[in-house]
Amino acid sequence: MNLSDLKEGQTATVARVGGDGPFRRRLLEMGFLRGTEVYVEKYAPLRDPIELILKGYHLSLRVDEAARIEVEEVKG
Amino acid sequence: MSQKSITIALAGNPNSGKSTIFNNLTGTRQKVGNWPGVTVEKKEGHLKTNGCDLTVVDLPGTYSLTAYSIEEIVARNFILDEKPDVVVDIIDASNLERNLYLATQLRELDTKVIFVLNMADLARARGVKIDADKLSELLDVPVVFTVGNKNKGTRDLLEKIMSVAEAEIDFPRTRRVYYGKDIEKAVSELSEFIKEKTTAELPYHIRWAAIKLLENDGIVKERILQSANPQGEAILQEAELKRQRLRDFFDEEPEIVMTDHRYGFIAGIVKELVKTVSKQRVDVSRQIDQVLTNRLLGLPIFVFFIWAMFQLTFSLGAYPMDWIDAGVGWLGEGAGQILPEGIFRDMIVDGIIAGVGSVAIFLPNILILFFCIALFEDTGYMARAAFLMDKVMHLIGLHGKSFIPMLMGFGCNAPAIMATRTLESEKDRILTILINPLMSCAARLPVYILLAGAFFGAKAGNVIFSIYALGIVLAISIGRLFRSTLLRGKVAPFVMELPPYRVPMFKGLLIHMWDRSKIFLRKIGGVILVGSVVVWFLSAFPREVQFSRDYEAEIAGISDHYRPLISAAHGDLRERLLGKRDEAISALEILQAREKVERSYIGRLGKVLTPVFAPIGMDWRGSVAVLTGFVAKEIVVSTMGVLYTVGADEDEKSEALKVALRKSNMTPLSAYAMMTFVLIYVPCLATVAVIRRETNSWKWAAFSITYSTTLAWLVAFIIYQGGRMLGL
Questions:
Q1: What pLDDT is stored for residue B437 in this prediction?
Q2: What is Dmax (Cα atoms) for chain A?
Q3: Distance between CA B450 and CA B472 in Å, rounded?
Q4: Which residues of chain A neighbour B394 with C-beta distances below 8 Å?
Q5: Which candidate, B627, B722, B712, places its Cα nearest to that of B669?
Q6: pTM of the model
Q7: Radius of gyration of chain A measured on its C-alpha atoms
Q8: What are φ and ψ of residue B152, in 5° steps?
C-alpha cells in the first residue's frame, strides 16, 4: 500500500521510499525512514497536496510524491 | 589597541527561528545582498562587544548539508571556505529530532559549533523537557537556551560565542555519528587511500571528504579532482569501488544507509535527553489549521486574505501616494523657480524629478505590500497558501508558492518579482519572474481605459477584461513552454514543512519590510534616474527645431491682435476676449509641442520604426507612445495626449483625447491590437531593473525584454491582420 492510498486520520508505518536519487534522499532526510509512523492530517481542498505528521512535525507532499512511499500496518 | 574581529555563521532549519535570533543579535545593523553568483539572499550584520568586532552571517535555512539545493551548497561552502570562527546552529527545541539531523552534520565538519535550543518554552508547553547538559555532554558541544521571540538568552549566547571563539579547542574526534562496522571500515580505508595518494592540501579534512565521496557528493568529487590532481581520478575510482561494494552488501545506496544511521544516532540521543512530562498536547496551531486549511473554508479564507492585502495596498496606499505626488509636483515647481532657465533646469525638472517621481510614487504600495507578505511569512501562513494553491500552480509547472507573486503582478510587477524570493528553486523563481509581467499591472489600466473607452463604448469593460484574460492565458502557455524548453527539469518537489503558527514580532516585520523596500529605493532609483534622463533627452533634443511655421511670431501676432480689443473692453466681454485669446494661443502651443515631439529624436525613431509597427496597425504616433511607455506604462497615455493634439496633462478621462483618437486613422481593431501590444511588450524600466537584480544577470533581463516584445508583436500581428482578413 502507498502513503497516497491512506485516508484522512489514518496512521501507517513507512516500509520503503521509492523514487529517484536526490528526491528519495530528501524524503529520508525529512524523516521518512523505515519504521517511522506517519499520520495523514488532511488533504488540501483541491485534493492535492497532503498534510502529514511525522516525527512531531507537519509536512506536505504532493499526491504523486506520496505515491512513492510504501507503507504498512495501516491503523485508524 | 587593535580590534579583534570574529565571524559567526548562523545555521539552522527553515522555521527554526533563525532570523529572529539574527535580528536579536544584530538589531538593525544589517546588510542584505545576494550570495555571489546565485540569487540566494545573504544577510550580514555587525555588532561590537567586549572590544570585538562581530560579523554575523545568516546562512540560508536548510534541513541538511547535502548538495541538494543551492541553499545547502551556499551554507556548506561558506563554512568550509570562509572558515567562520564559530558556527551557531539554531535548533527548534519543539522539533528536536529533525533539527538534530543538520546538527550532526555540522558536527562532522570539524568547526567550532554552538547549539542553540530555541523555543524551549514551546516545547515545554507541549510537555517536552530537554536536558541541555546531557545534549552538551553527548555531543561534546556547548549548548545555550534561547527564546527568540522574547529576546531571551541573547546575552548568554553572545558570551558563549566569545568564549568559544577565543578558546583553543581541539575538535573532539569521538561522539560523532557511527555509521556501522561496514561503512566505517570503508570510510577509514578511503581516508587512508586519500592520505597516501595526495600530499596536496585538501579543501576538506579527510574523514569528511571520505564520507562525502561515499555519499557520491557531486561538489566534493569535483573539488577533489581539482585539488588532488593528478591523483584525483584514482581517489574517485577507489570511492566508486567502495560504493559499489557497499551497495551490493546493503542492496541499497550507501547514502541512504548513512542517512538511516544518522537518524538512528539521533534517536539514541533524543531518548536520553528528552523527558515527556505529560502526554497532553494542546496544539493551537493544529486547531487554527482546522479552519484555515479546511476543505470548505480554506480557499474562501485565502481569497479573503488576498483581497484584504490588495485593499490595504491600494486603498490605504492611495493617501501617501497623493502626498508623494503633491511633494514631487511641489519639488518640480520649486526647482523650476530656483534654477535658471535652460537645459539644466529642464533636465532636472522634466527628466529627473518627473521620471524618478513617477516611480517613487509606488513606495507606499510597496511598503504595505511587503508588510503584508512579511506578516504572511512570519506567522507561517505563506506555507498554507502554497499548500492551498499548489494544485492550481502545478498546472503551469510551478510551485504553490508562486501564486502570491503572480497575483501581486496585477498590482505592480516590480514588488511582485521581488516577492519571488520566497521560492526555493531557482528555476521556479526565474520562470515566475519571466511570466510575471504578463499579469497586467495597474499602470497599464489607464491605457486600456483610454483605448477601450474611445473605441468600444459600452463594451469597454468586457474588452478590458478580455485583455486581462489574454494575459493569464499567455502566462499559462508561455509558462508551460519555458518549463519544457528553456527551464527544463522537474517541478521542485513539494516537500514543504507546515511550521506551527507563530505570533510575529513587530520589529521583525518592520526589518523584513524595510530590507526589501530599501532595495527597491536604492537600486531602482539608480536605473530609473538614468532611464528618465535618457528618455527626456530623446524627447527634448534636438533643442533647436526647424518648425514648419513660425509659432513664436504667430503667438505674438495673436497677442497683438487682442491687445487693443481687450484694453478697450470691460466686464464680461473683456473676460470672453481674454479666454478667446488664451484658447488661440494654447492651440498653437499644442501644435508646436506636437511638432517638437515629431521632430525630436524619439519622434524620428518612431517614424523610422513605422515599417515595424504598421503591420500591427500602429502609426508613428502609436510607436512613439509605446516607446516612451518603457519608462512607465502609464506614460503611453500622456504621450498620446501630446501627439493626438490634446494637452500633455490630460489624463485618460479626457473626452477630448478620445474624440481625437476616433478622428485619427485608428479603428477598434487597431486599438485592440495596440492594447494587446501594451499588455505584453517589454516590462517597464523599473521591472526590468528588478528582473536584473533578482535573477542576478543581465542575460535574463535582456531575454525578458526580447521575448516579451517579440511575443507582443506576434500576438498583435495575428489579431490585427486576422481581424482585417475577417473584415473587421
A1: 95
A2: 32
A3: 21
A4: 48, 62
A5: B722
A6: 0.80
A7: 11
A8: -100, 140
**From CA B369, how far away is CA B404, in angstroms rounded?**
11
Whether the Cβ atoms of residue B528 and residue B405 lie closer than 8 Å to each other: no
Residues forming a β-bridge with A75:
A11
| Chain A: closest CA distance from residue B693 (Å) | 30
What is the secondary structure of B173-240 as a DSSP string? -SSS----HHHHHHHHHHHHHHHHH--SPPSS-HHHHHHHHHTT-HHHHHHHHHHSTTSHHHHHHHHH
For residue B321, CA distances in Å to B360, B467, B539 come to 9, 27, 27
Evaluate whether B690 touches B527 at the Cβ level (below 8 Å). Answer: no
Residues 6+ apart with CB under 8 A from B85: B6, B7, B8, B112, B165
Those residues with Cβ within 8 angstroms of residue B489's Cβ, 6 or more apart along the chain or in another chain = B427
- What type of residue is B56? V
The grid coordinates listed for B621 are 504616433
As a whole number of Å, the end-to-end CA separation of chain B is 83
Low-confidence residues of chain B, pLDDT below 50?
A: 1, 647-653
The residue behind cell 516584445 is B709
The three grid cell numbers given for residue B538, joined into one nine-digit string: 530623446
**Least CB-CB distance to B387: which of A27, A29, A51?**
A51
Identify the CA nearest to B704 among candidates B430, B457, B492. Answer: B430
What is the grid cell recorded at B206? 579527510
Sequence-distant (6+) residues with CB within 8 A of B288 are B501
pLDDT of residue B490: 67
Q: Over 80: is that where the pLDDT of A12 sits?
A: yes
Which amino acid type is present at position B576?
Answer: R
Predicted confidence at residue B411, as pLDDT, reads: 74
Out of B101, B388, B496, name the one closest to residue A29 (CB). B101
Q: Rounded to an integer, what distance in angstroms lies between the CA atom of residue B301 and that of residue B293?
A: 9
B392 at the A interface (CB within 8 A)?
yes
- Residue B280 pLDDT: 52
Residue in chain A closest to B263 (alpha carbons) equals A31
Chain A and chain B share a number of CB contacts under 8 A equal to 110
* CA–CA distance, B414 with B420 (Å, rounded to integer): 11
In chain A, where the domains are located: 3-75
Q: What is the pLDDT of residues B641-699, one digit of tens each?
A: 767 755 444 444 457 778 888 888 889 999 999 999 999 999 888 899 889 988 888 99
Closest CA to B684 of B709, B719, B711: B709
DSSP per-residue letters across B342-374: SHHHHIIIIIIIHHHHHHHTTHHHHHHHHHHHH
In whole angstroms, what is the distance from residue B230 CA to residue B199 CA? 11
What is the gyration radius of the CA atoms in chain B, in angstroms?
A: 32
CA B612/CA B593 separation, integer angstroms: 25
pLDDT the model gives residue B650: 46
DSSP assignment of B538-569: HHH-SSS---SS-HHHHHHHHHHHHHHHHHH-
Q: Does residue A39 register a pLDDT over 90?
A: yes
In this prediction, residue B171 carries a pLDDT of 61
Smallest Cα distance from B129 to chain A, Å: 14
pLDDT tens by residue, B12-52: 998 898 988 999 999 877 777 777 766 677 889 999 887 88
CA distance B161 to B150: 20
Mention the CATH class of domain A3-75. mainly beta
Mean pLDDT over each residue of chain A, to the nearest integer: 92
Cell numbers representing residue B489 in the block: 527539469
Residue-level pLDDT at B282? 64
- Beta pairing class for B274-276 and B128-130: antiparallel
Grid cell locating B33: 545582498
ipTM summary value: 0.96
Q: Which of B122, B496, B501, B502 to mutate to test the interface with A (most CBs of A within 10 A)?
A: B496
- Distances from the Cα of A70 to the Cα of A29, A74, B676, angstroms: 16, 11, 50
Q: Which set of grid coordinates corresponds to residue B667?
A: 479603428
